[in-house]
Every structure is written in C-alpha cells, then in structure tokens.
C-alpha cells in the first residue's frame, strides 16, 4: 500500500520530474530516492532495454554496449557487445539478453538469434542459448515463475504476436499466440509486473497480457526502449534519444491503473477542484490552493485555452501551464486528476465534430501523464473513474467527457446566456453510447460518496448558455440513471461558467442532486452573472478568482460534507454543508420503515 505521504513524492505528472523510484526489496532492505534516471554517457546505437537487480543497480542495453549503472545513472561498468543486443532481464544474479544477428522481421523466418547470459556483478559472459524457435528475430525477454518468454520481430501485416516460452535451462516449451492485433514490427521489450505480462512494441503500443496469455488491454504508450517491473509496484519505462552527439537513455517510474486508488488509503477529507486557466496569465490562486493542502485536486476543464486545430499550438500552451510554479507544486503535493472542456479539447463549444479530437486526446494523456495502462490510452474519450479510501469511507471520483461524443447543439437567435436552445432529438447525445454504458457500470461500483465531475453545468437550466439543458433528454437520462443504479451519495461538480454557483434540484432524482460550480482559476469575465438559474441554491454567485473545496467529516454516524468557494485571500466566499444521509432516498435511511 502507498500512504499519502509517500504518494506526495510519487505523483504521476508529466511535469513532476521529482519522481520517486524505490530500489528496496530483494536482498537489500534500503530505499534510494531519485528523480528521473538518465544513464551517464553517449553511445553509438540506441537503447534496446533496461532491467534492475533489486540491489541498487540498473542495466542498460545500447545495441552494441551493455552498461551497468547505480540508481543515479552513474556508470559502474560497461562492455562492448555484439550487435544487436536487445532487451534484457535479471534473474538470480544473471543478466539475460535477447540477441539478434540478422534477418530481423524476415518474412521467411530465417532470423539468427540467441540469449546471452552475463554475471550481474562483473558483466562477464557465462552462457549462451540458441533460440531458433524465435524465427522472426529475438528482441525482448522477460521472466516469471520459472519460465522465460522471448519475444521479437514480425513481418508487416501479421495480426497477432508470438511469445516463446523456455524453462530455466532454455529448453523450448511452447509458442503462445496472443490476439494483439497488428503491431509495428512485433514486440521490442517485455517484463512481468503487477501480476501481468507487459510488452512494449515499436511505435506507441503497449500490451497488457494475463498469466494465461489473454490480452487485457492495448494502450497508446511508447515504451519500446524498455520496460521493467518497478519495486513496490508499477513500471519503469525507458526512453531514448539519438543525435549527432550519440544515443542516450533514461527511465521513469510510472504507476499502473490499479495503483491510482491506492495512493490515498486513508479516508479522503480534503478535495480541491477548479477550472478555467488562461495559461499565459499569472495564476496566484495556486498559492491559496497549496495552503488548503488538498489530498486530491480535480481539474475539470478549460485547463488551457488551446482553441486550435494545430497540436503544436496546444502542446505549446500545455507547456506554458506546466511551467507555472504553483501548478508544479500542486502536482507534487496532491493526487491530481483531470478532464477537459471545450478550450483544452481544442475548439470553443466543440463536440464530436472536432476533427482533431483523436490527436487532442493523445496530447491530453501525454500532458496529464495518464498511467501506461489507463483506459484513456485504450479508448476514445477522456472519461475515467477511481475509488479512494477504505470500505465504509470510500469516495468514487467519476470524470465525464462532455466533448468527444457530444452531438451538435441547436443554435438560434442569441439570448443573454448564449445562442443555444434545447434539442429534443432522441438521437442527440452528450456522452455517447459507450460512455453511457460505462457510467451505468461505474454507478454500481461500491462507494459511500460519488463525486461526478462534469465540465459543464448539469443542474442549471438557464437559457442560452452551454449546459446539459441543451440536450434535455440526456439530462433526464442522467437523473434517472441515479435511480436505476441506486447510486446513493452522488453530487456533481462543474466549471466553465467564469463564475461560481451552487445549484440543487429534486426533479427526476431519488434525492436532492447538487451541482457545485467553481470557475475560474484565473480567466475572469468582468460582467456579472448573465443568466437566471432557477435551481440556484444560494442567493449569490462569485466572480473573482476562486477554487472549490470539499471537506468531508467522517467522525459521526452521518458523515458531513462541506463544499466551499475560496478566493485569492483564502477566504470562503460561498459555502454549503449537508449530511451524507441527504443523498439517500428517505425510504433507505436507517430507522425508516
């Protein structure tokens, strides 16, 4: 398990280069902490694989050089080796390297390859094993439970991959066929981690495979330069660069999907949320967010103002956001999750018609550093969900995607709030069929509190502006889904509006449905609230820089939840407290008949 203090050193963030890698376990009961590890030196050929020995050493295969370093990347020993030394793994004091001598990816299957074994302490060669069964070329190797898997190249067009199993003496046992679909030139790197086989393919494909060789997932993630089990769980993934100065290599520690919820194991008590960041403008509010010290922070859209079909423009704007000191510090100190709204999606008020939505999603996953096996790397849309905390005090976070699948909106004469009118077409969708199916499943996941993040407001029905009310059948569907799934403890947070607003409705829901809007972190509109909200909970809204806070008091029999809007001075400008029992149908409350 990973406690919150440790997690705050391990936050998975593109911009947090102070990642912690634990080289404990195995024979040495010690913990070394370090940042992203770069291997010292430059090499003639590119990186092919990495592994570790569990005693503070890393091993790097640079095609014609085998390198041993300490956990900071300082070279301890290196030797020249035959081309092509590929991926490698450590087993019982030995380094096993998959080596190919030619005809890699040959359609006729005439590759020449073997596994060469080195002493991990001295890098002295100890054994060689021929692997003629790997007929298209040995590229990767991994070990688990007394067996080696050797993997490698494939001719173009093959719609599956082959895993060649050997015992400890390298007696061939079986060829396993996995239904992976096409991967460019086969598989480059392999490891066993978190109870699964992982295979890094050429290009940007990662395969996760069960111990029974069933493909569990295919993800857009580049780890063809090497992949290794990380101590304590997760993956070490390698990257490499070649230029006129030579080739270099580095590794990063990355969490996996099952580890995200384990970053916070005690009951969640402080959650922050916010929206709308003009990336080029100062964002002093981050100082107040850091003072609040959230355990979890949710970015719920318009995290940059990208507004472009050019991914280079979006990438540059993400870079500006990522360089903000307050943003980086929050990445380091809290678990951070994100979804998008229209401006970081790429087009104002955009929906499914945005032509660059696939590329934009890939950029989103890169910037927010989605874990290698995140479902968002395997499917369309950035919707996601996680559960934090122990049984009886679980908080489920559901991040919706209100952009990728959304049908065109109905436009007419502009009103105060905007040009949009309700569209009663039953074919029009907010979430799309796949996301609706997923949401129904998520609402049945055990949890005491369910926090649904919608980038746009769900409860308000103000005329003209962009809300769920523009697709009223979809809004009603959401309400009824709460009843259908018996999803108690649910409330909504939203952003987008450039002012903060609290809303509540009792229509079409089994208990009052709250929608707490926080906007903006630094993108302000000078005007007042332009629209009437018939579901407004308080007699005011707030229009200056702000973020939202959710404080959960688990101490009593009926947990208490307080949602507040906090300004640049750290002062609460709006606040509402309710008990968890309010988010249950009366007939289900304790003592009710």
What is the number of helical segments per DSSP (H or I, 4+ residues)? 9
Parts with pLDDT < 50 across at least 5 consecutive residues: 1-34, 589-593
Shape: elongated
Can you tell me the CATH superfamily of the largest domain?
Alkaline phosphatase D (PhoD)
Report mean pLDDT, rounded to a whole number: 92
Q: What is the rounded Rg? A: 26 Å
The SS-based structural class is mainly beta
Quickly describe the structure.
The chain is mainly beta.
Task: Explain what you see.
- The strands form seven sheets. The protein has a seven-stranded antiparallel sheet, with no helix packed on it. Strands 22-21-20-31-32-33 form a six-stranded mixed sheet, covered by helices on one side.
- The chain folds into two domains: about 30-255, Neuraminidase, CATH 2.120.10.80; about 265-590, Alkaline phosphatase D (PhoD) (Purple Acid Phosphatase, chain A, domain 2, 4-Layer Sandwich), CATH 3.60.21.
- It is mainly β and about 600 residues long.
Describe the secondary structure blueprint for this structure.
Elements: H1 4-10, E1 37-38, E2 49-52, E3 57-61, E4 63-70, E5 75-91, E6 94-102, E7 112-119, E8 125-130, E9 138-144, E10 147-152, E11 161-166, E12 172-178, E13 187-193, E14 196-201, E15 205-209, E16 215-220, E17 227-229, E18 235-243, E19 246-254, H2 257-260, E20 270-274, H3 285-292, E21 296-299, H4 311-322, H5 325-333, E22 335-338, H6 342-345, H7 357-367, E23 384-388, E24 395-399, E25 410-411, E26 420-421, H8 433-442, E27 449-454, H9 472-485, E28 490-494, E29 501-505, E30 513-517, E31 547-553, E32 560-566, E33 572-579
Parallel strand pairs: 20-21, 21-22, 24-27, 27-28, 28-30
Antiparallel strand pairs: 1-19, 2-3, 3-4, 4-5, 5-6, 6-7, 7-8, 9-10, 10-11, 11-12, 13-14, 14-15, 15-16, 17-18, 18-19, 20-31, 23-24, 25-26, 29-30, 31-32, 32-33
Helix pairs in contact: 3-5, 4-7
């Amino acid at each position: 398990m990973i406690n919150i203090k440790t997690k705050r050193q391990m936050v998975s963030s593109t911009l947090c280069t102070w990642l912690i890698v634990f080289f404990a376990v195995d024979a040495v009961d010690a913990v070394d902490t370090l940042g992203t590890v770069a291997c010292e030196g430059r090499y003639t050929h590119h990186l092919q694989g990495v592994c570790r020995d569990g005693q503070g050493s890393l091993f790097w295969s640079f095609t014609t050089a085998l390198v041993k370093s300490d956990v900071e990347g300082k070279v301890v020993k290196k030797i020249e080796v035959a081309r092509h030394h590929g991926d490698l793994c450590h087993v019982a004091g030995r380094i096993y390297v998959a080596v190919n001598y030619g005809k890699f990816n040959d359609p006729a299957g005439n590759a020449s390859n073997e596994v060469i074994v080195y002493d991990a302490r001295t890098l002295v060669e100890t054994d060689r094993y021929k692997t003629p069964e790997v007929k298209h070329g040995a590229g990767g190797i991994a070990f688990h439970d007394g067996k080696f898997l050797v993997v490698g190249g494939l001719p173009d067009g093959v719609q599956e991959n082959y895993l060649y199993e050997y015992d400890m003496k390298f007696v061939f046992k079986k060829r396993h066929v996995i239904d992976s679909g096409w991967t460019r030139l086969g598989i480059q790197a392999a490891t066993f981690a978190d109870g699964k086989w992982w295979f890094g393919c050429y290009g940007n494909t990662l395969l996760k495979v069960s111990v029974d060789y069933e493909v569990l997932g295919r993800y857009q993630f580049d780890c063809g330069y090497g992949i290794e089990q990380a101590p304590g769980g997760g993956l070490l993934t390698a990257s490499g660069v070649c230029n006129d100065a030579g080739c270099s290599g580095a590794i990063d520690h990355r969490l996996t999907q099952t580890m995200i919820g384990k970053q916070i194991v005690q009951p969640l008590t402080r959650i922050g949320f916010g929206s709308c960041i003009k990336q080029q403008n100062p964002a002093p509010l981050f100082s107040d967010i850091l003072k609040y010290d959230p355990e979890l922070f949710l970015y719920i859209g318009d995290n940059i103002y990208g507004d472009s079909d050019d991914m280079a423009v979006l990438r540059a704007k993400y870079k500006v956001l990522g360089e903000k000191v307050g943003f980086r510090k929050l990445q380091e100190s809290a678990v951070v999750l994100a979804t998008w709204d229209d401006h970081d999606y790429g087009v104002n008020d955009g929906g499914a018609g945005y032509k660059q939505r696939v590329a934009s999603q890939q950029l989103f996953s890169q910037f927010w550093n989605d874990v290698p096996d995140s479902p968002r790397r395997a499917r369309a849309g950035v919707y996601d969900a996680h559960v934090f905390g122990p049984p009886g005090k679980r908080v489920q976070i559901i991040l919706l995607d209100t952009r990728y699948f959304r049908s065109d909106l109905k436009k007419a004469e502009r009103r105060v709030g905007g040009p949009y009118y309700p569209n009663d077409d039953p074919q029009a969708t907010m979430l799309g069929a796949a996301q609706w199916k997923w949401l129904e499943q998520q609402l049945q996941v055990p949890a005491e509190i369910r926090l649904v993040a919608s980038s746009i407001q769900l409860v308000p029905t103000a005329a003209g502006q962009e809300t769920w009310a523009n697709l009223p059948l979809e809004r009603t569907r959401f309400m009824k889904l709460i009843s259908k799934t018996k999803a108690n403890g649910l409330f909504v947070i939203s952003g987008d509006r450039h002012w903060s607003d609290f809303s509540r409705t009792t229509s079409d829901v089994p208990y009052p449905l709250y929608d707490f809007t926080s906007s903006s972190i630094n993108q302000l509109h000078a005007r007042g609230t332009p629209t009437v909200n018939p579901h407004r909970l308080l007699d005011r809204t707030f229009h200056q820089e702000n973020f939202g806070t959710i404080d959960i008091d688990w101490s009593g029999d009926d947990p208490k939840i307080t949602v507040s809007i906090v300004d640049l001075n750290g002062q609460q400008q709006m606040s509402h407290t309710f008990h968890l029992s309010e988010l249950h149908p009366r007939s289900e409350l304790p003592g009710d008949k």
